[in-house]
Amino acid sequence: MLCNDLSYNNFTSQNSSDFSCQIRETNLFASYSTDNVSKEVSCLGNNICSTSSTSLYIDCGGNGVSVGNKDYEGDFVSGGASHFSSTDNRWGFSNTGHFLDDDQHDSYILTSSSQVPINNSELYMNARTSAISLTYYGFCMRNGSYNVTLHFAEIAFTDDTKFSSLGRRVFDIYIQGMLVEKDFDISDRAGGVGKAIVTTYTVNVTTSLEIRLYWAGKGTINVPTRGRYGPLISAISVDPCEGLKTLGVALSDNLEELALTNCDVIKEQNGFLVELAQNLKKIKILDLSLQSYSAR
């Protein structure tokens, strides 16, 4: 079946919001995007946010799992070479690319074998992979600063003297369009195959969050079998920085007044004070000199 991937193009249209992100076998994700500030994707123009989220947890390639007090949502849609899908208008993913030199049916979800034990949790037993580009997109995020944590474990190779131990997976990581990791090698960073590596990045979000993993042609492509390469990710967790946590508690508890002592948080998070003022009757900010002011 012929698949067309037109994602991440710069097409123009008088009303691009009429397009969907997936039309039959054609992926149009981000192909009409014109807003580089909020990272809104025009094919999601009809996506109305009834509520705003301040956290996101995805079990990439898995059925969902609880770790501590976090419930990671399942991400078990198989996808394809030109695929976009979303879940409950909260998040979605876009996948691009056929695996080169692979005579078998392309598989974009990997499962750990008994030869590569994962001791950290069920979070690393499955992973989503891609031949070229894999993008996760968080919709309807409340504006502010977030800690974006990416969970990785190499489960396709082995850590012994077999041929499969020679594999090397190398890819780049972008968050909000910015390169945060160049030539990222999971097993090298984790200290071996079957070991978890967790990386965290603090980013500013306006409405939407974009996490993109991109294969730039580096690493092996035929170990242990042909077509075994490209980005791979086990899980994603997104948590608010302290300012957003304060806002979330204030709104959930129906507070009318709030006193803040960490003024650095206010300065670092654009729009945070304005949003608090819109939802609370009174805000009091205390500094070290015990001076204060109120926003009504």
Automatic annotation (TrEMBL):
Pfam families assigned to the protein according to its UniProt record, in alphabetical order: Malectin
Species of provenance: Ambrosia artemisiifolia
Coiled-coil spans in chain: none
Organismal lineage: Eukaryota, Viridiplantae, Streptophyta, Embryophyta, Tracheophyta
Residue span, Malectin domain: 55-236
Official protein name in the record: Malectin domain-containing protein
InterPro entries linked: Malectin_dom (IPR021720)
